[in-house]
Design brief:
Layout lengths: L11 H6 L3 H9 L5 E6 L3 H23 L5 H23 L1 E6 L3 H9 L5 H5 L6 H12 L6 H10 L2 H13 L12
Antiparallel strand pairs: 1-2
Helix pairs in contact: 3-4, 7-8, 7-9, 8-9
Length: 184
């Protein structure tokens, strides 16, 4: 279930300066923290078929645009779209999707403080003990209810690239920003 931020009373000066502050504030208070998905599919044939179907659709659409006077173009595009839909459905059926949500900032900071670098890690220039932090971060940011024990097992037994992808999904969502700083 998405977690919302807490809502303190709006400052009267801000309300007076901006008549729309209450509406803006309501939107800000109801924002849901960023979420990311990590999709795992062990079936190489399904991944190749999906990539091929995507590539074929792009190629066929480009050819149809180049030959707009050819009546077979729309039919070829429709067939390629059907192939892509079938490949996507097969992929989705086999895939495992893990979802991670950003933690509240103070909770993330406390988690990092609870896992300081060992002396050896600090000598190597690290601030954190990623080995002890990883399982807790993955579990706490998991939307799917992954436990610390599950996260530790996956991080310890998966290939280095897959374990890194799992950790990075949980870590990188903490750094996600969905805003732009524009000119006033």
């Amino acid at each position: 279930m998405p977690t919302k931020t807490t809502t303190p009373a709006p400052p009267p000066a801000a309300v007076a300066a901006d008549a729309h502050w209450a509406a803006k504030r309501e939107k800000l208070a109801n924002r849901i923290r960023p979420t990311v998905s990590l999709t795992i599919c062990d079936d190489l044939d399904l991944r190749v078929a999906l990539d091929t179907a995507r590539s074929n659709l792009r190629r066929i659409k480009a050819a149809a645009e180049d030959r707009q006077d050819d009546a077979t173009g729309p039919e070829a595009v429709a067939l390629a779209e059907e192939d892509l839909a079938a490949a996507q459905a097969a992929f989705d059926e086999a895939a495992i999707v893990l979802r991670f949500r950003a933690l509240p900032r103070l909770e993330f900071e406390a988690l990092k403080k609870a896992h300081p670098a060992t002396e050896e890690q600090a000598e190597d220039g690290h601030d954190l003990n990623v080995e002890s932090l990883g399982p807790e971060l993955v579990a706490k940011s998991s939307v799917d209810g992954m436990t610390v024990d599950d996260a530790r097992e996956f991080l310890d037994t998966w290939s280095p690239g897959e374990a890194t992808a799992l950790f990075n999904a949980a870590w990188n969502i903490q750094e996600a920003a969905r805003m732009d700083l524009g000119k006033g």
